[in-house]
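Quick review question:
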């Protein structure tokens, strides 16, 4: 007799709220291209830590530093919140955008009144643009070989 495993529906992933003795955080994930970020926003004053480093040390360019803290600045709560981020995949620009997306989702989990401001700036929407694949017979995704008359 063969037993069939019943198909179980996966529950919708909701932001994680952890309550511990030392701290309380709100967790969400963000993405951009092939970069994925897991962001934890804490209710105490601190800094943004990315993969164990301060975000200014992890991102050397001011553009990436500005993008990674943009969601906190949008809700003007940079002074009394901190974040811990684990990010992987993609390049540094995509990682900064993934952090911004994940931080915006975590901030909405923290306080739903932040949603209109973050939604207006489209920080809650994952940017779905990715590199187009190369097609056979072409030099790149759309670039055809140069035509020669003779």
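Suggested answer, residue by residue:
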């Amino acid at each position: 007799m063969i037993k069939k495993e019943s198909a179980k529906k996966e529950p919708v992933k909701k932001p994680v709220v952890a309550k511990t003795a030392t701290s309380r955080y709100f967790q969400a994930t963000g993405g951009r291209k092939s970069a994925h970020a897991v962001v934890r926003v804490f209710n105490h004053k601190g800094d943004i830590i990315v993969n164990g480093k301060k975000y200014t040390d992890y991102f050397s360019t001011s553009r990436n530093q500005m993008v990674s803290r943009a969601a906190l600045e949008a809700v003007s709560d940079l002074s009394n919140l901190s974040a811990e981020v684990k990010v992987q995949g993609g390049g540094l620009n995509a990682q900064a955008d993934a952090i911004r997306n994940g931080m915006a989702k975590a901030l909405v989990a923290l306080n739903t009144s932040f949603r209109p401001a973050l939604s207006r700036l489209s920080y809650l929407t994952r940017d779905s643009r990715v590199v187009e694949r190369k097609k056979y017979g072409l030099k790149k995704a759309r670039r055809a070989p140069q035509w020669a008359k003779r």
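Why it works: Helices lie at 55-58, 62-68, 70-74, 92-110, 115-120. The CA atoms of residues 15 and 68 lie 19 Å apart.
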